[in-house]
Structure formats: structure tokens, C-alpha cells
Specification:
With about 80 residues, the protein is mainly α. It is built from 2 helices and no strands. It is rod-shaped, with a radius of gyration of 23 Å.
Length: about 80
């Protein structure tokens, strides 16, 4: 009587990447995590909490506290972006 419908329902998902994190988002998580850790390190060196290596120009230099906070915040934003649905 009629032609078969062009849309068929199937239990198989045609998108093979479904359920996996896309590579660009994984990269965003990794880069964001590294930025957070590096920002925290800069903050610790700038405040003198982590005075290693002893010859570092960043130790007890207050601008590095701000630079580290900005970098850590940027890393948090990047991780948030990469993890959101």
C-alpha cells in the first residue's frame, strides 16, 4: 500500500563517538589541569611558600601571586568548558 518510511528506528546508535569525550575536550581538560597546577606553583613561589629552586627569580615576588591566580583561573575555566555537556 504505501512505501516504507525513510525514518526507521534502530536500537543501535549511529554515532560511534557517543559516550566518549571528544579529543578536543580531553585536550582542554589536560591543558586546563596543567594550567591550574602551574598557577598554584607560581602563587606558592611568589608568596615564598615554595622557595624552590632557590635561584628562581619568582620567589617572594608578589606579581607572581597575581599571575598564578590568573593562570589558575583560566585553567579552571578551560576545564569547566571541556567538561560541560
Amino acid at each position: 500500500m504505501g512505501r516504507a518510511s525513510a525514518t526507521t528506528t534502530s536500537s543501535a546508535n549511529p554515532d560511534p563517538s557517543c559516550g566518549r569525550t571528544p579529543p578536543i575536550k580531553r585536550l582542554g581538560i589536560v591543558i586546563g589541569a596543567v594550567a591550574i597546577l602551574m598557577g598554584l606553583l607560581w602563587m606558592a613561589q611568589g608568596s615564598g611558600i615554595f622557595p624552590y629552586p632557590a635561584s628562581s627569580f619568582m620567589i617572594d615576588e608578589s606579581p607572581w601571586i597575581l599571575y598564578g591566580a590568573i593562570l589558575a583561573l583560566a585553567g579552571l575555566v578551560l576545564v569547566w568548558w571541556a567538561r560541560r555537556g
